[in-house]
């Protein structure tokens, strides 16, 4: 397993470009499903509050539909067949987690979201990130991370922005640690033996020396956001 800094990795990838984010353009089916579920009758007011035109269905620019939603195979299934995986390691409190870079669009500093009255507690709200409706997820709550007596020194200061199946989503984290380049043999997909946190949103374990780092399943979190 090799490691490199997040700065080195993200310098080589233009995650902030319009092509990468699908900036502006039509709402995707996933965005519409999210808005109908959580914005309700206040949809127009909430979208305008974050600077997005609620009537842009026929807008020009990069459309959010076709190429961005054609991901029928789950990311977790595809990762099991990759000889080498790249991961972003990050911390929530004292616990390190990892997320596949294939799902990561960029990492940004925390921005306060606009709250949604109808959303569950793990959805902190929405932000406008380059013209896309972007829900922010409290990853600590979904993963069952409890900081105990050290809670005063722990807060989410960054957002890992992911995009899957037409929805751009931000996962709130405390800090980015490093980048991992991991051979398949260093991944344990038998997570049923893992104890200590909720495994509902974990797809596997990355072996880093004597440590086991939980791999967060972006697809499972996305399903949770859209189905609840």
UniProtKB/TrEMBL annotation:
<dbReference type="InterPro" id="IPR039315">
    <property type="entry name" value="CheW"/>
</dbReference>
<feature type="domain" description="CheW-like">
    <location>
        <begin position="84"/>
        <end position="227"/>
    </location>
</feature>
<dbReference type="InterPro" id="IPR002545">
    <property type="entry name" value="CheW-lke_dom"/>
</dbReference>
<feature type="region of interest" description="Disordered">
    <location>
        <begin position="1"/>
        <end position="22"/>
    </location>
</feature>
<dbReference type="InterPro" id="IPR036061">
    <property type="entry name" value="CheW-like_dom_sf"/>
</dbReference>
<protein>
    <submittedName>
        <fullName>Purine-binding chemotaxis protein CheW</fullName>
    </submittedName>
</protein>
<dbReference type="Pfam" id="PF01584">
    <property type="entry name" value="CheW"/>
</dbReference>
<feature type="compositionally biased region" description="Basic and acidic residues">
    <location>
        <begin position="1"/>
        <end position="16"/>
    </location>
</feature>
């Amino acid at each position: 397993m090799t490691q490199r800094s997040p700065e080195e990795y993200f310098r080589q990838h233009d995650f902030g470009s319009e092509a990468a984010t699908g900036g502006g353009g039509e709402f995707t089916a996933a965005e519409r499903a999210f808005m109908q579920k959580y914005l309700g009758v206040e949809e127009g007011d909430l979208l305008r509050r974050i600077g997005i035109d609620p009537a842009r269905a026929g807008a020009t620019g990069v459309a959010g539909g076709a190429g961005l939603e054609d991901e029928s195979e789950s990311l977790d299934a595809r990762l099991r067949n990759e000889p080498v995986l790249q991961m972003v390691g990050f911390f929530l409190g004292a616990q390190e987690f990892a997320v596949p870079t294939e799902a990561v669009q960029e990492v940004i500093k925390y921005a306060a979201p606009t709250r949604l009255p109808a959303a569950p507690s793990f959805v902190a709200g929405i932000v406008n990130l380059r013209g896309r409706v972007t829900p922010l997820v409290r990853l600590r709550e979904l993963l069952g991370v409890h900081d105990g007596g050290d809670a005063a020194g722990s807060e989410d200061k960054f957002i890992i922005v992911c995009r899957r199946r037409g929805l751009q989503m931000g996962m709130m984290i405390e800090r980015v640690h490093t980048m991992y380049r991991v051979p398949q043999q260093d991944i344990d997909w038998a997570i049923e033996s893992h104890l200590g946190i909720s495994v509902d949103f974990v797809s596997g374990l990355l072996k880093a020396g004597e440590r086991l780092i939980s791999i967060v399943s972006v697809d499972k979190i996305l399903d949770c956001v859209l189905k609840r």
